[in-house]
Amino acid sequence: MATYTLPDFWASALINGDYSGMSPEDDAALDAWLQDNEPGACVSVEDDSAFYWVHDASRYVLACTCSTYTFIE
Fold first, then answer.
1. How far does the chain reach from its first CA to its final CA, in angstroms?
2. In degrees to the nearest 10, what's the CA dihedral of 8, 62, 58, 11?
3. Lower Cβ count inside 10 Å, N or C end of the chain?
4. pTM for the complete prediction?
5. Mind listing the pLDDT tens digit for each residue in 14-68?
6. Rounded distance, CA 25 to CA 22, Å?
7. Residue 32: which residues within 8 A CB-CB, separation 6 or more?
8. Which of 68, 32, 36 is nearest to 49 (CA)?
9. Residue 8: which domain range?
10. Long-range contacts made by residues 49-56, C-beta under 8 angstroms, separation at least 24?
């Protein structure tokens, strides 16, 4: 298992595969992060939302509200 601090607006896409609420830019950023990191399946997201200047997707998304996501390979 691995945990990452990632944007809250990625939650629906990561957990449910539902990209419908995301902009094309956010969709592309998530797809790039998934391709580069290959984290496996997202199995949970913690209720610990907070603003982060730096997070595990900072290369793809600017500072934003994030939560802790757990993935299994």
1. 7
2. 10
3. C
4. 0.94
5. 999 999 989 999 999 999 999 999 999 999 999 999 999 999 999 999 999 999 9
6. 8
7. 60
8. 68
9. 2-72
10. 49/8, 52/5, 55/5, 55/6, 55/7, 56/4, 56/5, 56/6
